[in-house]
Amino acid sequence: MRGYISVFKMRLRMELQYRGAMIGGILCQMFFGIVLVALYNALYEGKPQSVPIENVATYVWLQQAFFRMLLATDPDLVDKIRSGDISYDLCRPVNMYGFYYARIMAQKLMGSLMRAIPMLAVAAFLPKGWGVSAPTSALGLLAAIPALFLGLLCICALENITMAFTMKTLDPRGMQALLNLLMMTLSGNLLPLTLFPDSWQKVIRFFPYAQLMDAPIRLYTGDFAVSDAIGIYALQGFWAVVLIALGMSMWNANKKRMIVQGG
Amino acid sequence: MNTLRLYVKSIGMLLRSHLQYPSSFIMQTLAQLVMEGGEMMVVILLVDRFDNLKHWSGGNLYFFFGLMAVSFYLTEFFGRGITGDFPSMVRTGRLDTFLVRPRGVLTQVFCGGTDPRRITCIAVGVAALIMGSILSGISWNIFKVLILIESIAMSCLLILGLFMIEAIFSIFSVKSVELVNAITYGGRSACQYPIDVYPLPLRALFTVVAPFALTMHVPASWILDKPLYGWPLWTAFVTPLSGAVVFTVMTCFFHLALRHYRSTGS
Lengths: 263, 266
Fold this sequence. Notes:
heterodimer, A: 13 helices, B: mainly alpha, about 75% helix, about 0% strand
């Protein structure tokens, strides 16, 4: 276990180094946030919905703030798979899955926190209906934090499943694009899940993708009652276990039939 | 003319080279189809829930979406050298080899890249245009066809011009500047909806700095018989030319910037 923790810590420090990239990323993400919020405001002018606009704006900002959590890949690993350097990793006295799980988790956690905090600080000053509103209750905020952590566990597991596909096909682009699209759509990044047709929502909210960002955000905005939090955690935990187990078995299967691309 | 022939020939060669790996090509092309289909689905879902966006009907929105998709992905299809590969050409020093050849650098950059996978994205855009045209009940005539073609061509030039800003930046700072993405990809996301739904600062940005509104929304809204801001007919013909202006200005800047190009030495 100590090995994984030190990998995690090393990666955290590494992520802290890229401050220049961070500022560019924040400004770009804020721009996208403003455009989306402006669009939803214009749509709401014509036909207000049962979900208040403040919640939609908060949803958009939180999604943008934690964008890095959804979409950050470990570029080293893809290179290693393609170049064959992954064979060195087979020599390490740690489980490969756990090793990369810890790395990607540190990257996602630090990368998104570093971006989210300044972004949300700015977005909080925007007028009502345009910026982030405060959580409905302090309990809602407290309930959202463990949900976000459980969501993080799910994202990292999904990321490793994508990697397992890369190991199989060597060309990550086709499969990665498909899986990323599924993630961007069904996690509510392209369009808040609260604005999907009501009949779809009943199904989509049980998908693993809805556990990543949607569940914590809805606890924060109060769309999910705090009293339901235990049920939500259970669902998230269930998916985390299933996805990790699936990813691990895929990695193990890949390890057996791995062909190192010489060189 | 000679330059054009060279370009057509290079693109042909690149296309053949892409088709050498058919399964990978088909897989990636399908992935592009699903991605653009997903974007389209978002618009459909929004129309399903909200019916209208201010005074634009659902059909109008599909038309705007299709116009943006066709222009943006045509640009990426034929201008991949600028839209995708240029920063890495600078970083790896591949640009150096262009400087010693007896052709313009920009010509060579354009000849150096194409992205045929975008064909499915363009197809989605065309489908959206047709769907939007039918739902909005557009009565087509020769002027409208001409304006549509002008609008798409000028938008492509505009988008190329905007990607050239990124290319120019990458000459000065070897690390590519993520912020420029806000007006290229951000412009795509924002301007696939008509400009007049946005608040003034965004409208100003996309009318003056990156004039998507002039190359796309003014002509498109005239085609839809809902002239933007009530402007007269001739504006629909004139304003798209701003795309060519942006492209020309950026080409000049690009050549100026090349004088300051210092190779990374690798």
